[in-house]
What we know:
Number of strands: 35
Helix content: 25-40%
Number of helices: 23
Amino acid sequence: MQPQWVPTERDIADARITDFARFVEARTGITAPDYHALWQWSVDDLSGFWHALWDYFQLGEISGEVLASTDMPGARWFPGTRLNYVDQIVRQAHADRPAIVQVREDAEPREVSWAELIDSTAAFARTLRSLGVRPGDRVAGYLPNIPEAVVAFLATASIGAVWSACGQDYSPKAALDRLGQLEPTVLVTADGYRFGGKAHDKRDDIAALRAGLASLRGTIAVSQLGLSVPEAMPWTEAVGNPDNAAALIETEAVEFDHPLWIVFSSGTTGLPKGIVHGHGGVVLEHLKAVALQSDIGPDDTFFWYTSPSWMMWNFQIAGLLAGATIVCYDGSPTYPTPDALWHMAAEVDATVLGTSPGYVLACIKAGAVPRTEHDLSALRTVGITGSSLPPSSALWLGENVGDHIQIASISGGTDVVSAFIGGVRTVPVWPGELSAPYLGVALDAFDTEGHPVRDEVGELVITKPMPSMPVRFWRDEDGKRYHDAYFDMFPGIWRHGDWITVTDHGSVVVHGRSDSTLNRHGIRMGSSDIYQSVERLPEITEALVIGAEQPDGGYWMPLFVVLAPGIELTDELKTRINSTIRTEVSPRHVPDEILLAPGIPHTRTGKKLEVPIKKLFQGADPSRVVERSAVDNPDLLDWYAAVRPHAAN
């Protein structure tokens, strides 16, 4: 397969990662003629790489070793070195461009200057201190994706307290399942948000959430809808008049692994796991991922469609670490038209836009042609994450957004709040493939015996530690849950739970979750291959395939489809679906039967519930298979549970 995008000599010469390579060569005497040589050095000499990265970004003095222990779990990074995440953002402040652009469904974009961001953060930090917040205390956010959420996070981090948040699309129970574990001192919230042209008043949900948080000393509320939140300090009072504050942020220097934030797993099989990341690990990883891998800097506008519930919200804030302008949007990507996200990207002159394969597919089906309908002349990169991007969608982006656009698919996770694999400004892009492992990521593909494999499907593993791996899980005093999550299959090796293929040209193909892999007659298959072929059909809105081993030794592999309005699941359509799978994937992927479904259930961050539905079909108790509050449409679970008896026939 030929690359669909190849960097020009100018791209390579101007890339920040090229400058870093020259820095490393001068520092170490090694030769790094291309990205793959630089990557190999970065994983062969972990201490040397992360030390070089620290010095390249001028992060300050290092007290002692870089990597005191390489054990996994248990690696010890930069012991004795102190810093604060917020200091690294403040030093990027400049007057040339805004720090944040807020985009809203019902109003013109609003710019937040770097001075306003810093002054608001300083003022809000003083308010938190007045409420008794101290280093190590937790501050919880129940907020839409608005600039005030960024300010609240930065203020929390500046005093050494710990931030954790979820979006207001979460019910009070779902929010409590997460934030309630943390016993937060302060809750930061908003009266509501607008989505799809509708206002969502969240005051009753805020009251229910507060009732479950006995540890609260105060609540601060942003007015988005012009409503009053009872017993809450108004945001305007908490920040005063930031334009006139002219205050410096008083930051608390903390240990490298001092908790910065707590992000949560999807929580589909019990209470969500609280994943703790440290200040130092996040600073290093995000500077690498954003400034080097993504080539984002002070002249860029970084817009990723996300929510505070999802790690990509945390990742987008890292644009500030690189001096870039970031974009906050809390509305629908398809309102008022399916191509609304492209319109917003044009409106803010986004240089890097992040979205999902699902949104790209929706644009394809809507017949959108962004390059002719919107001025995307500033755009140079489209980032993709959430699931695998089909080759056909990648090619559509090239044809309909711009063939000069780099399609930078990334794959990683909440676990490391970053990516393991993704685009690089100096490496070609092949349709349906991720260009290369990130620097410092000792990625490999293992077979079931723990042996590396190439050009065949294997388990995604990380064989050496990364500084942004979790400091710990919340309430996991003995570390057992953390160990069992990643290190149970291959001792001392991080097993991530994805099936990948490492190609002969160094790129990576992600096939989907290994715990939901289809295994028909001993042949392992990725569900994403089926989705890529079926969901391109105009009659199909979405699909879900499950492979369930049966008590009698049989194997049932149904395909559930959600149809476009006005379409019926006729025998002719079933034949065409099967023919498409047989031709574009393989005969082994053809399902046992095709069933019409009212919808596909997802986690709150948009991932299909393949594993819980599989467990249902294998006879598991529906009440224990999945936590309903973690599902976007929990009523769908009842429909799938009713289908279950069919699986045993």
